[in-house]
Amino acid sequence: MRKWEKNYWLVIILISIADIAGGIFVMKRGQYVPEKICKSLAVVVLITLLIAMLMVVVYFVIVSCIGIKLVLHNINECNDPLFKTIDKYRLYWKEGKGYYRRQLQIINLYYKEGGEVDKLVKKEEIERLYERYDFLKEKSAFFEYIVTCASSLIISVIASFVYSMISEEKNILVILGVIILVIMLFGSVLFFRYAERGQMGSYKYMLYEYESKLLKQKIEKLSNKLVFSPENEKIIKMQNMVLKELIKIKDGEKDRKKKKVVEKDIVEISKLDLTNYDNYNCWEQQVYINGNKAYLVYNKEKEPKDNDKGEGDLINKEYVMLVNILNKYKLLAYHV
Predict the structure, then answer these.
(1) What is the pTM of this model?
(2) Is the predicted pLDDT of residue 307 greater than 60, yes or no?
(3) Which of 5, 69, 267, 331 is most buried, taking the most CB atoms under 10 A from its CB?
């Protein structure tokens, strides 16, 4: 829940509490409280109650509007700056002669070997590729989804209307006319999508499908490339071990503020890329995380004389953060 929502609901709750208190006071008024004051207070309670109810309605209207805006944004726009550039060509160019040819050229330009999309593959930015792929699939299927939903709704309404008409009407000619009308309406609803070629005369969905196919190839290429080395596997297991220990601490913590701090540290640990270092410029030291064997990676150039004390410079800032969090919860030991 966002901050403004929390504050909004806090105001509603406070008004409701004041209403309840005022209502109890009015009902349980003592003999020393003038009736005129009680009546005035009752009016105030009713007004504030209406305000609270109105605020609830306004809240749901605002949330609905925000939700609709977000849905429309997700359908029409891809948030990634690289892929936004591709979409701008579709936005500004009209669907006339040569439009689809030009769009295919633009897609091929970005997806060619060594092109802009390949740079994402090289950087292993799989999340950005997934986001784009999801956008293209949803964009391509959106028209069919809307048509299916609208058709189902219209057919349901027609069926209900026909049932009520036939139930009440006894004239066979009227019933026959209604049946013929219904058949025509059903036909219109079911087949209107085929009145024009493509999707309402547009073939943009084929561009989305073509780009999806190219993007899927890039994703598969990167997915096959993403494998752990034996060294990395060891590090990932250690990171998972740390997360497991922190989750245990969080689950056992009763103080809400402290629990939030632990949750924040869990997020930080999960974001760490502990495998991103030069294997030829490091050395590993065996340590213990809550009694379990693990390894820390240090800079080989600054290797200390006495390794057993855990001295020396860690290989990068990621490991510094890891060690700081482990020490914070007294999970790290260099000896059992």
Answers:
(1) 0.66
(2) no
(3) 331
